[in-house]
Design goal:
Elements: E1 12-17, E2 23-27, E3 30-34, E4 39-42, E5 53-57, E6 63-66, E7 71-76, E8 79-85, H1 87-90, E9 96-99, E10 103-108, E11 111-116, E12 122-126, E13 129-135, E14 140-145, E15 153-160, E16 163-171, E17 177-183, E18 187-194, E19 197-204, E20 209-213, E21 224-230, E22 233-238, E23 241-248, E24 251-258, E25 264-269, E26 275-279, E27 284-287, E28 293-296, E29 304-309, E30 314-319, E31 323-328, E32 331-337, E33 344-350, E34 355-360, E35 365-369, E36 374-377, E37 385-390, E38 395-400, E39 404-408, E40 415-420, E41 424-430, E42 433-438, E43 441-446, E44 452-457, E45 460-461, E46 464-469, E47 474-478, E48 483-487, E49 490-494, E50 504-510, E51 513-518, E52 521-526, E53 531-535, E54 547-550, E55 554-558, E56 562-567, E57 581-588, E58 591-593, E59 598-601, E60 608-614, H2 619-622, E61 623-629, E62 637-639, E63 645-648, E64 654-664, E65 671-672, E66 676-680, H3 688-741, H4 744-759, H5 763-783, E67 789-790, H6 791-808, E68 814-819, E69 829-830, H7 836-847, E70 855-862, E71 867-874, H8 879-888, H9 895-909, ...
Parallel strand pairs: 59-66, 68-70
Antiparallel strand pairs: 1-2, 2-3, 3-4, 5-6, 6-7, 7-8, 9-10, 10-11, 11-12, 13-14, 14-15, 15-16, 17-18, 18-19, 19-20, 21-22, 22-23, 23-24, 25-26, 26-27, 28-56, 29-30, 30-31, 31-32, 33-34, 34-35, 35-36, 37-38, 38-39, 39-40, 41-42, 42-43, 43-44, 44-45, 46-47, 47-48, 48-49, 50-51, 51-52, 52-53, ...
Helix pairs in contact: 3-9, 4-5, 4-6, 5-6
């Protein structure tokens, strides 16, 4: 087992298979369960000793065991449970126990006790030092010593319920060592040692008599661990393997000795008839078929290179160092060292002349007379042979790597005839013909004339790899044409039904059977029923099969360092079964869940994994699984070998019933796992209420779209109306500005000035003034029709206005209009006649009431890349004093100022243009008014 799985320990005491086909192993390190692939350890937190013993199953299939400390355990719900601590009764000795329907009976050094399964209260049945116990299906047997000081008075009791009956008393003047009882259906065996020799008794349960048996010599000095009965034979498990006997007339008749070098402690036969052997120091061995025996030659340095069957069940093996080993089944009876220590390439036995031809893979060959084992050097006569075929008493066909030769009287003379000059692969004599497979074709020779005729298929040469014959048929394996049979000179293709891609290595016939060696095992083909049987790793043949021999009663498979011996008839082929499929776990969205037959899951819990297993020896390699989803699949899906998981990445919504079946590759019937149903809910977007919501959303969206469209159209109309109104308002304001700028005082003063110039005969000044006045009036009328003008145009109009006002002030006005160089006056757009009203206010309300030193400055500069700042500063009387004068004269706020305020509001709110106006009163240190400053800020494009 350690070669095919990592055994958790090397020291094992008991082995048991349960109803679910798990293999349980009691070991020094604890209790282990094997499922065909891996081991699981079972322990209990109150366990006081790792080593566990005496594995037993109760009527419910629960496993029980105990330890040296006196604790009794059982396995339930996949956990090791502590049933009872009997350390006060056991006193540190391993006690025997029996599982009854309602109680557990303990056989201890302080007496016999029954432990109630429900209350777990002990009841003492009997006193005495219980040394050993046994039981069959109906009765318990116990070997009791009254006290440790009275070892000569030894009694075996039969216990029926609570009554003990003395059936055998053994009186001895010598101390009995290691007494043991073994109960069976018809007999009870009692063994003990005296002077280190085993003594055997058989007890008649009914007659209450004992019969001393003759202890076989091979058992006398061995330690007997256990005694079992399989198929009517008694198996003694000892320190030197297993001795198998048959009981005849109260005599043990030897049958077999297996595992000679192992200390075997227990044996179990599983549901597929595999034999499990636990050992005390070398792990666990599994024998799939005790009838198949392997003879291991690994201790020798040579390799087997050739083999040949002799008479009956004898055969000979040739090696790569010139040795010949002669066997009768498994027993070697002769060894011969050839004069040449070279590779033996081919062996052929002439049964009539009892001559063995030994072909060396060099220019040497020998013949050996098996009557006296005399070796004759025959030079290169049979060297590098590929095939031999005896034609009659005098003729022998021999083929080698370059030609086919016919020898006449080959053991004495060298008369020969070359039949073909090509490499020979194989040959056979069939009826009145010699059939020879060359590397370039398949040829038939008449045994009288040896005339050559090529056998073709579809008019093409036939390349034959192996050949054999039965009563009336020649069987051929070919390179390109599959498996053929030749009957009455007619070639027919045969469909053997072997698995695909199986390479046939050799074929041999034995009555109505064809034996076919392949890399996957040895097949037996019944030519009458056209059925197959297979021997492979499940049967204990853990290798590809190339060369084999057919003896009278056996088949021998030869390997480089060993050979297998197989009985042809008795118990060679097993009937394989498949254990029940166990669903180990269900993984949903990467989380382990409780295994149950049906799951109801939301739509997003649809990533599902199913883990399963069919127990049994190497079940992961020999059990094939298939699955289908009944709602989707019409056929079964194959799961690769050594895979015990199926994953569904995204199960669709609906009900899915997953069916799983398993079948041992050598079994006839499959077994089915309980089906598992998954009901996956539909996602919310596939539910009726979701469709209803979508429809409502669609209808609402359509309604909102049309509502929004109508609102947008209405808003667009409102914007257009607002624009018209704004344009109308701006036009009105421009007219207000124009009216303010063309107020009667200004016009009267201007005309009065012109009149004064005319009266004073200052014609040039009158003309100049009149031109400037007319130009200003024209500019006002022109600009009032526009929404925006350039800053340069605005400043030109402002300068012209200031020139006229300076005349009005009789040159008592000093003004300055300053523009920073970086201000692009020709491209910057401003509202028309926007600055003039603030300049007019400065003149009319600030400077007019001042008698002299009237100063006014207008400064235009860029505050930033996008802000233009216009500053209008005067040194007039200030806004407060001006307001007092206006109130005393009953004057109102100027039209121009009021119109400009409305224009600023419209530009900011309606046209989304940033314009701000800030008026600052200027004071000196004595807090006397020194003028007014107006700061106008407006946004301009960044690139200007």
């Amino acid at each position: 087992m350690n070669k095919i799985s990592n055994l958790p320990d090397v020291e094992f005491y008991d082995v048991k298979e349960d109803a679910q086909k798990y293999i349980w192993l009691a070991a020094n390190k604890g209790l282990y369960r094997y499922n065909g692939k891996s081991y699981k350890r079972f322990s209990h937190p109150k366990q006081k000793s790792n080593s566990l013993f005496q594995l037993k199953l109760d009527h419910l299939g629960q496993l029980w065991c105990n330890n040296l400390y006196g604790q009794l355990f059982y396995v339930k719900n996949n956990k090791l449970q502590l049933f009872y601590d009997a350390s006060q009764f056991a006193k540190g000795q391993l006690f025997g126990y029996v599982i009854n329907l309602k109680t557990i009976r303990l056989f201890t050094t302080t007496g016999i006790y029954d432990i109630d399964k429900i209350t777990r209260k002990p009841i003492k049945i009997s006193d005495g030092l219980c040394i050993s116990n046994a039981n069959d299906e109906q009765m318990n047997y116990v070997f009791v010593v009254n006290s440790e000081n009275d070892l000569n008075n030894n009694i075996t009791f039969k216990i029926d319920n609570l009554l003990g009956t003395n059936i055998v008393k053994i009186e001895s003047f010598k101390n009995i060592q290691s007494p043991k009882l073994f109960g069976f259906k018809n007999h009870v065996f009692f063994t003990h040692k005296i002077n280190n020799d085993n003594v055997l008794y058989i007890i008649n349960k009914d007659k209450k008599t004992k019969q001393k048996l003759i202890t076989p010599n091979e058992l006398k000095d061995k330690t007997i661990y256990n005694l079992l009965n399989f198929k009517g034979n008694y198996w003694f498990l000892t320190t030197s393997g297993v001795y198998i006997y048959q009981l005849k007339n109260y005599k043990l008749v030897f049958k077999d000795h297996i595992f000679k070098n192992e200390s075997i402690t227990d044996v179990e036969i599983d549901f597929n008839n595999n034999y499990w052997f636990t050992t005390l120091d070398n792990g666990v061995f599994v024998s799939p078929n005790l009838n198949i025996r392997q003879v291991n030659l690994k201790s020798l340095v040579f390799k087997i290179t050739a083999s040949c069957n002799l008479n009956n069940n004898e055969f000979v093996l040739g090696t790569n160092d010139g040795k010949l080993f002669f066997y009768n089944t498994q027993k070697q009876f002769k060894t011969i060292q050839l004069p040449s220590k070279k590779i033996v390439g081919k062996l052929f036995f002439d049964t009539q002349k009892e001559q063995l031809i030994v072909s060396i893979n060099a220019t040497e060959s020998f013949t050996i007379n098996l009557k006296n084992y005399k070796i004759t050097d025959t030079g290169s006569r049979f060297s590098v042979a590929k095939t031999f075929s005896k034609i009659n008493d005098t003729l022998l066909f021999y083929g080698n790597y370059k030609e086919g030769i016919l020898y006449n009287n080959p053991f004495k003379l060298k008369e020969k005839k070359i039949l073909g000059s090509n490499r020979v692969k194989t040959s056979i004599v069939y009826k009145s013909s010699l059939l020879v497979a060359y590397i370039n074709g398949f040829f038939q020779y008449d045994l009288d004339t040896f005339n050559q005729k090529e056998i073709k298929i579809n008019e093409k040469s036939l390349l034959v790899n192996a050949i054999t014959k039965s009563a009336n048929t020649v069987w051929l394996t070919t390179q390109h044409n599959g498996f053929l049979k030749l009957t009455n000179d007619t070639l027919t293709q045969v469909k053997l039904g072997l698995p695909k891609n199986v390479q046939i290595n050799a074929i041999k016939s034995d009555r109505d059977y064809l034996w076919i060696s392949t890399d996957t095992g040895l097949y037996q083909h019944n030519t009458l029923t056209n059925t197959f049987k297979l021997l492979n790793a499940q049967d204990g043949i853990n290798t590809a099969v190339n060369n084999f021999l057919i003896l009278k009663d056996y088949i021998v498979i030869t390997l480089p360092k060993s050979f297998y011996v197989l009985p042809k008839e008795k118990g060679l082929f097993k009937t394989f079964k498949t254990a029940k499929v166990i669903i180990k776990k269900i993984i949903i969205n990467d989380k382990d869940t409780l295994v149950k037959p049906q799951y109801k899951l939301p739509f997003n819990f649809n990533r599902i994994g199913v883990h399963f297993n069919s127990n049994g020896f190497q079940s992961n390699k020999h059990v094939a699984y298939q699955y289908r989803i009944k709602s989707i699949d019409t056929s079964w899906h194959q799961i690769p070998l050594n895979t015990q998981t199926i994953n569904f990445n995204s199960l669709s919504s609906g009900k899915h019933k997953i069916e799983l079946k398993a079948k041992n590759i050598s079994a006839k019937k499959a077994v089915y796992a309980p089906s598992i149903s998954f009901i996956i809910s539909k996602p919310f977007w596939q539910s009726w209420w979701f469709y209803l919501i979508i429809l409502l959303i669609i209808f609402t969206s359509i309604w909102l779209y049309f509502w929004w469209s109508s609102k947008r159209k209405e808003a667009k109309r409102n914007i257009e109306i607002d624009k018209i109104l704004i344009d109308k308002k701006i036009t009105h304001l421009r007219l207000e500005n124009l009216r303010s700028q063309m107020n009667p005082h200004f016009i009267f003063n201007a005309l009065n000035s012109i009149q004064d110039y005319i009266i004073s005969n200052k014609k040039d000044l009158a003309s100049s003034y009149l031109v400037k006045f007319s130009r200003l009036i024209r500019i006002y009328l022109d600009y009032s029709q526009q929404n925006e003008i350039t800053l340069q145009e605005e400043l030109n109009a402002l300068k012209l206005y200031l020139e006229l006002e300076k005349i009005r002030f009789e040159d008592e006005l000093e003004y300055r209009v300053q523009t920073e160089q970086q201000v692009n006056t020709k491209n910057i757009k401003v509202p028309p006649l926007f600055i003039q009203p603030y300049v007019e206010n400065a003149l009319k309300h600030g400077l007019l009431h001042k008698s002299n030193n009237r100063k006014l400055q207008v400064i235009i500069k860029k505050k930033s890349d996008t802000i233009l700042e216009i500053t209008i500063e005067d040194n007039g009387i200030g806004r407060i004093k001006s307001q007092e004068i206006k109130q005393s004269n009953h004057q109102h706020k100027s039209f121009a100022t009021k119109a400009n305020e409305e224009r600023v509001y419209l530009y900011k709110t309606k046209l989304k243009k940033e314009i701000s106006v800030k008026i600052i009163d200027l004071y000196n240190k004595n807090k006397e008014a020194t003028g007014t400053k107006v700061i106008i800020k407006m946004s301009i494009p960044k690139y200007l």
